[in-house]
Structure formats: C-alpha cells, structure tokens
Amino acid sequence: MRLYHRGAAFCKKMRGKLSKMSEKRNIRDHKRRLLAAKYELRRKLYKAFCKDPDLPSDMRDKHRYKLSKLPRKSSFVRVRNRCIFTGRPRGVVEFFRISRIVFRGLASRGPLMGIKKSSW
C-alpha cells in the first residue's frame, strides 16, 4: 500500500517533468495509431492475398513483397496502450485509458462516473 501512496505523491510533485515525458510518449503513440489506421486496409488486403492458396505463387510473392515494403510502424501490433495522464505502458485499464495507479486515485476521490471504491 505504501508504494501506491508514494507513487501518487511523486506524480503530483514531479507533474511538470512527468507531463512533458508523458506528453511526448502520448504524441508518439497517437502518431503511430494514425499511421496504423492509414495502412490498415492495405495491410489486410495484402495479408489476405498472401494467405490465399488458390492464387499462383508468384502473385502471392508479389503481395508478400508489397506487405514487407509497408512502414513497420503502420502495424497495429506496434501500438501500445498507454496512460493518458502519465504515459505508463503497463497496467492500463483499457476502458478509461489510464493506469491502475491513476485509476485507484481517481476512484477513491470520485471523479470517475459510476466507479466507487469498494469496502467490505
């Protein structure tokens, strides 16, 4: 429990530095998402042609080559879910796009709609 409290206090104390770092990460992540969305249809089409056994092998090889020439960062596999507040890549609650540490703090204070800290 001490680790959570210290983490939240550290975030408040170092808000300026963390916001710059997280902002940079989030901008990079946003650009990567846009690039992945741009090439999504083309990538799926090339993959479908590569996997189709009815097509001749030279045509499949041609589409495999085109697939390899697409930008690497345009793949959705390379997109990482990050916290929108801290930029933390692990422990992200996907529905809210915030990390578990920030989620816990917001849930206890109450600004998250429909979320209440449970106690029994």
UniProtKB/TrEMBL annotation:
Alphabetical list of InterPro entries matching this protein: Ribosomal_uS14 (IPR001209), Ribosomal_uS14_CS (IPR018271)
Keyword Ribonucleoprotein found: yes
GO molecular function: structural constituent of ribosome
Location in the cell: Mitochondrion
GO cellular component terms attached to this protein's record: mitochondrion; small ribosomal subunit
GO biological process per UniProt: translation
Pfam family, one: Ribosomal_S14
Keywords, alphabetical: Mitochondrion, Ribonucleoprotein, Ribosomal protein
Function statement: Binds 16S rRNA, required for the assembly of 30S particles.
Name the UniProt record assigns to this protein: Small ribosomal subunit protein uS14c
Organism: Actinidia eriantha
Taxonomic classification: Eukaryota, Viridiplantae, Streptophyta, Embryophyta, Tracheophyta
This protein's encoding gene: rps14
